[in-house]
Amino acid sequence: MPRTAAPHALTVHTPRDKEKTDGLFRLQNRIIGLRPGTACNRASMRTFDEIRAAAELRAYIYGAAQALTGNFPSLSLLAGLMASPALALLAEDLEPLDRILAGARRCLDDEQALRAAEDEYRRLYVGPHALPAPLWESVYRDPEHLLFGEATLRVRRFYARRRLAFANRASEPDDHISIELEFMRHLAEAALNALDGSPAGRDTWLALCREQREFLDAHLLQWAPQSFALQLPHAATDLYAGTAELIIEFLPYDASLLTETEESLPHERV
Question: What does the pLDDT look like over 122-141, one tens digit per residue?
Answer without folding.
Answer: 999 998 888 999 999 999 98
